[in-house]
User: Which sequence fits this backbone?
């Protein structure tokens, strides 16, 4: 395994090689408008590349030679961009830069607690939470994998915002039929849970991520595929809401709430259907067709549920292992991992 770092700041790009040789990720200083935006808004950042393949030459101290550009283009067929700290390192901007060299950009874990801010060629700002950051590149297909928890009102709000600003999403976003649905009441429970913990609170984003993953793990959650079976959807949702009401005295639940949610999600189901697919099959088929795939991590390694600063962590695996479980692909196909440090 080759490991190296590339420092990005407001000065010309410099490189510093870590304990292992090779694997420098080079970027042309005039590479693109969005790369310049990345430099300006992220004054001090490092990109750490873990590579399974050697590199014949490295970028010079200005990072503008031909070998540097080839290094970006020669990233593995399946590569990942992960945060190395506690998030907010600038992963979304880097994914936006790299996306033009990939056919697919995929999210594998987390939910709307991942905030990625990117800019288009005109300098317009887009704040994304569920839609992968590759969406601004017209040739890129975006996948929301089975490991993601999906808040449909938030997803549609993002899609509407993108479409209103001239970014086409039709036929460019796929949502896993295995992804779990995050409901508004999960967000309410998140707040109730934090209040219950009092001075020992976790400090969550209160976007319902933890409660939704809890539903998934105790096996009473609802998945995107359940929207295709509206005959059983109300009963499943009733069980989920009843469980929440039994657990939290402050959570008020009654027949009217269930009826309103069912009617709401009938409409969501109709709108979501064109986006839904078996992404596990899709991803593995894409790999067999030699499509290039970039995985966009949410949060960061130090927030990993197993390897982070527990209990002050997120509820998923934003480190390398989450790529395989969150997309249903084999470990052997994962190549370069680009870790971003701020």
Assistant:
């Amino acid at each position: 395994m080759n490991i190296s770092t590339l420092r990005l700041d407001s000065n010309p790009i410099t490189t510093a090689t870590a304990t292992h040789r090779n694997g420098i990720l080079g970027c042309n200083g005039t590479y693109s408008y969005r790369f310049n935006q990345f430099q300006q808004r992220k004054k001090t950042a490092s990109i750490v590349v873990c590579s399974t393949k050697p590199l014949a030459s490295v970028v010079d101290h200005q990072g503008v030679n031909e070998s540097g550009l080839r290094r970006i283009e020669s990233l593995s067929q399946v590569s990942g961009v992960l945060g190395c700290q506690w998030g907010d390192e600038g992963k979304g901007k880097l994914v936006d830069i790299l996306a033009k060299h990939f056919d697919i950009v995929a999210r594998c874990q987390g939910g709307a607690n991942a905030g990625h801010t990117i800019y288009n060629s005109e300098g317009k700002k887009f704040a994304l939470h569920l839609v992968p950051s590759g969406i601004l590149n017209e040739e890129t297909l975006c996948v929301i994998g089975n490991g993601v928890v999906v808040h449909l009102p938030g997803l549609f709000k993002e899609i509407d915002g993108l479409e209103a600003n001239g970014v086409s999403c039709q036929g460019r976003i796929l949502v896993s039929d295995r992804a779990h649905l995050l409901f508004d009441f999960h967000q309410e429970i998140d707040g109730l849970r934090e209040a219950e913990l009092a001075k020992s609170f976790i400090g969550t984003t209160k976007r319902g991520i933890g409660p939704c993953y809890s539903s998934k793990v105790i096996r009473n959650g609802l998945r995107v595929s359940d929207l295709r079976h509206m005959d059983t959807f109300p009963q499943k949702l009733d069980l989920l809401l009843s469980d929440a009401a039994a657990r939290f005295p402050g959570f008020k639940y009654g027949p009217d709430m269930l009826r309103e949610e069912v009617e709401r999600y009938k409409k969501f189901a109709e709108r979501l259907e064109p986006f839904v697919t078996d992404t596990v099959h899709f991803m593995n088929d894409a790999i067999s067709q030699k499509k290039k795939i970039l995985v966009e991590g949410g949060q960061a390694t130090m927030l990993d549920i197993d390897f982070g600063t527990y209990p002050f962590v997120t509820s998923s695996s934003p480190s390398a292992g989450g790529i395989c479980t969150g997309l249903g692909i084999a470990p052997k196909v994962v190549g370069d991992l680009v870790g971003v440090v701020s």
